[in-house]
TrEMBL record:
Listed InterPro entries: Epimerase_deHydtase, Lipid_A_modif_metabolic_enz, NAD(P)-bd_dom_sf
Name this protein carries in UniProt: NAD-dependent epimerase/dehydratase family protein
Lineage of the species this protein comes from: Bacteria, Pseudomonadati, Pseudomonadota, Gammaproteobacteria, Nevskiales
PANTHER family documented for this protein: BIFUNCTIONAL POLYMYXIN RESISTANCE PROTEIN ARNA, NAD-DEPENDENT EPIMERASE_DEHYDRATASE
Domain NAD-dependent epimerase/dehydratase intervals: 9-229
Length: 318
């Protein structure tokens, strides 16, 4: 029996911890091309690597040079990396350009990495949020408009351009070595802000398990929208303790006070004012559809995840 055909796959955001792990897994069975708008990353032999922004002219040259079977779109600019306008151009307009090129060059599959933040943090959220729940993040803060618009854009292409076989993944907090999102930066610190009187339940997935989820979504090709989360969760303040942080209480009354403190102390990278509600109200997503459809089960426990941050503090306590 002949071996399965090696597909040619474009992975964006190649400089990030998640994309690096996805590329390493795919390289064993497929031809991979790596792209990042921040820098050209060093890759294993046989993996072309480019530094180019998706909304620039040079990005199309990569599509001309390689005949892609699939695109795994992971690259995204975080809120603490740039201002709102540049982030919108990169995350939303860049994604539209990418999807237009996928249509033009007849790419037959797209996997889009989104976020659970799109649901919004509200005291009225149900205990478990399914994929059908409304996306209310932009009602909470304008700083998440790009995340919600990216989702809306992807859903338009999902239903309008069926030949793209698009899969949208909404993971919970991704943590682990090399991850530089807000939550990972926060748990890396010796002191972690906690809002007095609040400790919402939170979900966490190890970056290795998320990489496996991305690869499964690609190789099993079941288009649709999926939450990605384990079956367990933990109160935020317990997570802080388990990660080896000391709690730094922040007054939560009046409601604007924690946002003012965060802005005044320039905590935008790890405790940004626009995410304050996520440290007050639970946003627990129901991931059973993804687990059942793709046979995915996280291999790393919460204890495994938090032990990484404890060990990092033991190596470098300050």
């Amino acid at each position: 029996m002949p071996p399965p055909k090696r597909k040619t796959v474009l992975v964006t955001g190649a400089a990030g911890a998640l994309a690096k792990r996805v590329i390493a897994r795919l390289h064993e069975r497929h031809n991979v091309v790596a792209v990042d708008f921040r820098r050209r990353v060093e890759t294993d032999e046989g993996i072309p690597s480019y530094k180019v922004a998706t909304h620039t002219r040079g990005f199309e040259d990569i599509f001309r040079r390689h005949q892609f079977d699939a695109v795994l779109h992971i690259g995204r600019m975080f809120a603490h990396e740039s201002d709102r306008l540049r982030r919108y151009n990169t995350n939303v307009l860049g994604a539209k350009r990418l999807l237009d090129l996928c249509c033009k060059y007849k790419v037959s599959q797209v996997v889009m990495h989104s976020t659970y933040f799109v649901y919004g943090a509200s005291p009225y959220n149900p205990a478990l949020l399914s994929e059908e729940a409304p996306l209310k993040a932009s009602e909470v803060t304008q700083d998440l408009v790009d995340s919600v618009e990216l989702e809306s854009l992807a859903q338009i292409y999902l239903w309008k351009h069926r030949k793209l076989h698009m899969t949208i993944l909404r993971p919970c907090n991704v943590l682990g070595p090399g991850v530089k999102n807000s939550m990972s930066l926060l748990l890396s610190r010796p002191l972690a802000p906690v809002l007095t009187g609040f400790s919402p339940m939170m979900q966490f997935v190890h970056v290795e398990d998320m990489a496996e989820a991305m690869v499964l979504a690609f190789e099993r090709n079941r288009p649709g929208i999926y939450n990605v989360a384990p079956e367990d969760w933990v109160p935020y303040q317990e997570a802080v303790v388990q990660a080896g942080c000391r709690k730094l209480p922040v007054p939560s009354v009046p409601p604007m006070l924690p946002k003012a403190i965060s802005g005044l102390l320039n905590w935008n990278a790890f405790f940004p004012p626009y995410l304050i509600n996520y440290f007050k109200y639970p946003v627990i997503i129901d991931g059973h559809t993804f687990r059942d459809t793709f046979g995915w089960s996280p291999r790393h426990s919460l204890s495994d995840i938090f032990s990484y941050y404890r060990k990092q503090k033991a190596i470098s306590p300050h």
